[in-house]
Every structure is written in C-alpha cells, then in structure tokens.
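so the lab meeting is tmrw and i was supposed to have these ready like two days ago... anyway. pasting both below. for each one the top line is the aa sequence and the line under it is the structure tokens. i havent really looked at them closely yet so no promises
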Amino acid sequence: MKSIVFVVLTLISISIFGDSSHFGSQNCAQCHQKQYEHWKKTPHFKAENSLTDAQKKEAKCYSCHKPEQSDVGVSCESCHGDGKYYAKSYVMKDKELAKKLGLKPITKSSCSKCHNKYSLHGSEKDPKKEPVCTTK
C-alpha cells in the first residue's frame, strides 16, 4: 500500500512541479558571471537565431542549435549537462560528486556531437558529405 501511495504522490508532484532537471543559464551566472558574460558574446548564445525560418521547422537543426535543455541557443547545460542536481555550491566544490550528479566535462567528444563532418561549422568537415543543417 505504501508503494502505491508513493507512486501516486510522485506522479502528482511531477504533474504539478514538472520533471525537469534543467537549471538555466541565468542561474549558472550567479556563480559563474564571467563565463556567462563571455558566453553571451559567442555563436553558441546566438545559435538558434542563426537558423533560417525553414531550418527552424527542422528538428535535426534544433538538436544542435537549441537543444531541449537549453533556455536559449546552446546554453551551459547543453554541454555541461542538466544542472539541477550538481549546481548546488557544496556539490560544485566536490568535483567527483558533481560528476556523479551529472556535470559533464567538455571534451572533443562532447563538442563533436554537433561540430562534426555533417555540420556547416564542423571541425571535421567533409566536402563529400552534405551538411545536416542546409535547409534553405
């Protein structure tokens, strides 16, 4: 009986409060102001705005230009992972705990999810392959 009550309460809380682990770039800025201000001047911040109207209708373009967890363009969490659980200051002071709670390091592999031979801005461009986001 207790497990049924728990499941019901969990479902109710998810429906009321949502199940998002997204933290938001503005919240990241509370501790990382310098990085936030720099990011706002980068193409990542403006990634969604760089799409044409036709591209904005394509899910394949949004997967890189405005990932689901992003509040604008390519946000902090697009690369570092959803921050709801690792963003607390006591967690961020413990690198191993932060990683266990979802903080992702920035690596060549994490960048190549979008910057690859199939993208217009890829670091591994292949002229024989048609870029993914070329919808006009």
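ok protien two:
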Amino acid sequence: MAGNNEQKQRERQRRREDAQRRAYEFLRGRNGADELSNALMILALVLALISAVTGWVVLALIALAALVVSMWRTLSRNIPARARERQRYRDLTRPLRQHIKLVEMQVKHRDKRYFLCKNCGTVLSVPRGKGKLRVTCPKCHTKTVQNS
C-alpha cells in the first residue's frame, strides 16, 4: 500500500511538471504582462466593482473589454507593437508618475523640498527653511529660484 501511495505521488509530480513545461512552452515568445496590461486589469476590476454596486451594464461591458485587451496584450507575439503601445502609455503617464514620486520623496525626507527642473524634468532638492534659493540643475544647468 505504501508503494501505491508513492507511485501516485510520483504520478502527480510528473503531471505537475508536465503542466508547467507546457505552460512555459505556450508563453515562450509572448509579450507577457507589463505596466499597460496591469493597468488595464486594474481598470477592469474597478469598473466591474462599480458596475456590480450600481448595476450599470455598460460599465460591466467596458470592464470586459479592458480585460480582453489586457489578456490579448499579454498573450501577443507581436512584441515590437506592444512595446510601442507601452511606450506611449509611459509617455502619457509620466507627469502623474513624477508627481507621485515627488510626493513619496517629500513624505520620506521631510527635511528637504523636492521639485522638478522646468527644462528637463530632473528631480531637484533643496533644504527646507532656508528661504529663497537659487538652484542649478546638474543635468541641463538651468538656473531657477525656489522657496525652501
């Protein structure tokens, strides 16, 4: 009986490894999940929850469409096209991501004030409580006056 259990356990392990191998082979050469796919998944989840609460069928359909597009992007083999889409998404969300990064830095380091260079967008910092300071961007050498 112990031999039978060991045999069943080995068979389960073999099946598990076989399923993992098949999944790996299926996903080889595909785009995979990226920032845009993840954002679409989150959008689909939020819209589905709102739809469930409000009963708006249109939101459920939009959520389904976002989910389908996200899965399509994840399983796509046309990696250059998905890379272009991802880059456009990153370009559109750059100001929001920079703002979030600045807020995180200001919360983490309360002794400094962070801001963006108006010319190149580099994150600059000055010590708090020093009044007006003239700041030179190390990247593009643009000079600005900032309150600390």
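from a quick look at the 2nd one: The chain is about 65% helix and 15% strand. The chain has a mean pLDDT of 90. will dig more after coffe
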